[in-house]
Every structure is written in C-alpha cells, then in structure tokens.
Amino acid sequence: MATIAFIGLGNMGGPMARNLLKAGHAVQAFDLSEAACTAARDAGATIAAGPGAAAAGAEVVITMLPAGKHVREVYTGEGGVIASAKPGSLFIDSSTVDVDSARAVAAAAEAAGFAMVDAPVSGGVGGAEAGTLTFMVGGTEDAFKRAEPILAAMGKAIVHTGGPGNGQAAKICNNMILGISMIGVSEAFALAEKLGLDSQRLFDVASKSSGQCWSLTSYCPVPGPVPTSPANRDYQPGFAAALMLKDLKLAVEAGQSTGSPLPLGGEAAQIYTLFCNSGFGGKDFSGIVNMLRGQK
Ligand code: NAD
After folding, report:
1. Chain segment 69-102, per-residue pLDDT in tens
2. CA nearest ligand 1 atom 4, residue
C-alpha cells in the first residue's frame, strides 16, 4: 500500500480519496476548503498544511481540481508539488483541464525528474462514490503502468490513450461528440412533436435505424422511452449542463490552438452557453431539449 497525497477534495476528489483509504492506502490530503478537509479527516486522511506539505513524503500525488490554472499553480507554484515531492514520486492529475495546461505541467514535472499522467474521468459523482470511474490516461507506458493499480481503487475502466495530454484530448473529444449528439437528438424530438409524431414511436424507429446513438438509446432526452434517463426525474443530473459547457469550451479552445475547424462543436458550446445563462446550468445537459422546444 502507498502513501498518497490527495489535493482537491470536492464533489469528486472527496469520494475518490475515501476509496483510496478503503483500499488501505495512507492519504495525506489538502484542500482550500476547511469543510472538505474535515470530511477527509473524518474518513481517515491526514490533513496537510498545503500542496507541498501534502506531497512531501508521498509516493504518489493525485490532484482533482477545478481547472488548468489551479493545476498549474498546485504543481509549479512556489511551495507546490514539484518543489516539494520526494524524488521518484508519481503525479496523477485527474482534473478536467485544457490539453495545453496538461502538457505544460507534465513537461515541468518531467524536467524536474518526475513521471506524470493526466487521468481525467467520466462517471460523475456517482461513479466517484461507487469506485466505478473510467480513467482516460495520457503519459508514458511506464507512468501508465505505475498509475494503473492506484487508479484501480477508484475506477473500473482504465484506458491508456497515448502520451502526455492525450487523456484530456480523449475526454474533450468524447464529450464534444456527446454534446453535439444530444442537441441533434433533442432537435429531432422537438420537430417530431410539432409534426404530430409520438416520442415513443420516433424512439422505436430511430433506436433501430441510422439515427441510433447513446444520447438516444441510453440517455433519451424526453420522458418515457428510456426509464432511467434524467428526463424521467425532472432533469436532475446526471451530468450537469454547466460541466458539459466547460468541456465544450475546452474543445473549442483546443480547436483554436490546433487550427481545427469545429463548426458543430462551436455551435454546441453557444447553445449550452444560452441554456446555462438562462439558469439551467445545474440541470442535466439533456434538459437542452426543453430550450429547443421553446419551453421556459
Ligand atoms: P469541486 O469544485 O467540487 O472540487 C474542487 C475542489 O478543489 C474544491 O474543494 C476546491 O476547494 C479545491 N481547490 C481549488 N483550488 C485549490 C488549490 N489551489 N489547492 C487545493 N484545493 C483547491 O469540483 P469537482 O466536481 O470535484 O470536479 C473536479 C474536477 O473533476 C473538475 O476538473 C471537473 O471538471 C472534473 N469532473 C467533474 C465531474 C462531476 O460530475 N462533478 C465529472 C467528471 C469530471
């Protein structure tokens, strides 16, 4: 069992750190929020005074932070992880951040002699609590092999997606497909309604035809056809629209920095911006169907 520094104990990081403790690891935790630290202490973690103090003496450092700027600060800032970690330790950043930040921090870690992987997740808070997250891991083969047994305590699928930054690349490309396809499926149901075509009948046809996709068959945005989808519980997330918007913005940013035209990714980001600005950022992202139907 390892001594693991865990920095960022929010909605995702809190339960992930608890699963590491349950698996028998020692956890040295830090968060700017006192409440988050208290909850981690109650679960059996030791609380450190800062990111550097958490990293000192740990064999593995895991971060679960809001965005790229927090990740840069925690690793490369004064008194940060890189300045304080013990030689040979492994860094795992599981936050969802821009690819450029992921690659810059991995390069800074490597220059200081540390191995690092970016390992963003899908599965949400439910997956973090149940220990069933999917990890998309970018880094060297050796770093991946070292990270895998640690990640196994928090997830059920661990996929090596290539070199540094490629975990983030896989995450934003997948979620861009999801955002676009959810809008497409929602537009179809809104149009069907106006044409007098029953939702269940559209589902029966499209789920067995070329319109078939995950947004339709696993996460149908209208109530009825897929009983487990958030549409049947007033669009309680699930996957909040604000998080979908964050991921779409990261995709657009990556498109700009690589010169990749993303006409539909860009449009999807605009549509989710409007939805979130109308006060629905906390609703499941499939609730976009109601905006497309013209409902308030
Ligand atoms: P959160 O806001 O609940 O938690 C982030 C935590 O980081 C907070 O407790 C905050 O106090 C802490 N923090 C911020 N700056 C810090 C610093 N400098 N030092 C120490 N702690 C600091 O967010 P979350 O929902 O746990 O998400 C974390 C990451 O996981 C994000 O990048 C998010 O996009 C990603 N993610 C979230 C979900 C989800 O369903 N919530 C799903 C997949 C991925």
Report:
1. 999 999 999 999 999 999 999 999 999 999 999 9
2. 10
Is the per-residue pLDDT at 130 higher than 80?
yes
List every span in the chain annotated with CATH 1.10.1040.10. 169-292
Long-range contacts: 231-234, Cβ < 8 Å, 24+?
231/286, 231/287, 231/289
Pocket test for ligand 1, best of 65, 133, 135 (most atoms within 8 A of CB): 65
Give the right CATH number for 169-292 from 3.30.420.40, 3.40.50.300, 1.10.1040.10, 1.10.760.10. 1.10.1040.10
Q: How far is the CA of 8 from the centre of ligand 1 (A)?
A: 6
Give CATH superfamily name and number for 3-163. NAD(P)-binding Rossmann-like Domain (3.40.50.720)
**d(C-alpha 103, C-alpha 125), whole Å:** 26
- Give tens-digit pLDDT for 200-256: 999 999 999 999 999 999 999 999 999 999 999 999 998 999 999 999 999 999 999
Which residue's alpha carbon is at the smallest distance from atom 12 of ligand 1? 8
Query: At which residue do the structure tokens 């951040």 appear?
Result: 97
Q: What does pLDDT average to over the chain? A: 97
Count CB neighbours of 110 within 10 A.
16
Q: From the CA of 31, how far away is ligand 1's center (Å)?
A: 10
Report the residue count for the chain.
Answer: 296
Q: CB within 6 Å of ligand 1 — which residues?
A: 7-13, 30-33, 36, 51, 64-66, 70, 73-74, 95-96, 121, 124-125, 243, 246
* Test site for ligand 1: of 32, 74, 81, 99, most ligand atoms within 8 A of the Cβ: 32
Map residue 194 onto helix, strand or coil: helix
